[in-house]
Amino acid sequence: MFNLVWGAVFVLVTYGFFLLCYRLFGKKGLYAWIGVATVIANIQVTKTIDIMGIVLTLGNTMYVSMYLTSDLLNEKYGADEARKAVWFGFFTLIMTTVLMQMVLLFNAAPTDFAQDSMETLFGLLPRLALGSLSAYFISQFLDVRLFSWLRKIAPGRNQLWIRTNGSSIISSFVDTLVFCTVAFVFIYPWDVWLEIFLTTYLIKFLLTAVGTPFLYAARNFKFEDEA
Q1: Phi/psi of residue 23, each to 5°?
Q2: Could you tell me which residues come within 8 angstroms of residue 19 by beta carbon, excluding any fewer than 6 positions away?
Q3: What is the DSSP annotation of 12-78?
Q4: What is the pLDDT of residues 52-106, one digit of tens each?
Q5: Which residue from 17, 40, 111, 165 lies 20 to 30 Å from 29 (Cα-Cα)?
Q6: Could you report the per-residue pLDDT of 150-167, keeping only the tens digit for each?
């Protein structure tokens, strides 16, 4: 029960920071959020938790917040800005992976206490990064295209929920399938892998629905330099 309640608080705090980042820094804040979320999501995903008997990986909230970010950029600034943010996320993750692998290769001092923990945390990063980059490349660009397509079908201002949830249904499924396959296949037993895949997709879909009101709120923010 604690994980369920704490998870709800965690989601609200994450989305709250998403809103605050945009409110304080505008469009630049959305790019910053993409960069930070890409790294944090791939660190959080190394931890699995149990909620009412269901095994889940962390990182889903940050992943979904990236969809919300690209959708917000698409909604307010156009598809080109959304695609540019996706490329920025690629750069951030590649940079982090390369630098942290270089860090791990340094010979630790006899008094060092961090090496083992860092190897545990970042040792999986290359595989996670490969899974994340593959999933991110396919699903994020797919999401941008789907969002733009849905805007032609449901262009109304009050139809934003159709655009963001509709595009996320497909792109989240593709993202989850690609990431879980690259990152976790042969690491977990098949029954655990299937459970992680199904629960991850369901959680992402639910998190998208929960994040929709935050997206509506963010869309209403006004900035003097964008007037």
Answers
A1: -60, -40
A2: 214, 217, 218
A3: HHHHHHHHHHHHHHHHHHHHHHHHHHHHHHHHHTT-EEEETTEEEETTHHHHHHHHHHHHHHHHHH-
A4: 877 777 888 998 999 899 999 999 999 999 999 989 988 998 888 889 889 989 9
A5: 165
A6: 988 888 888 889 998 889
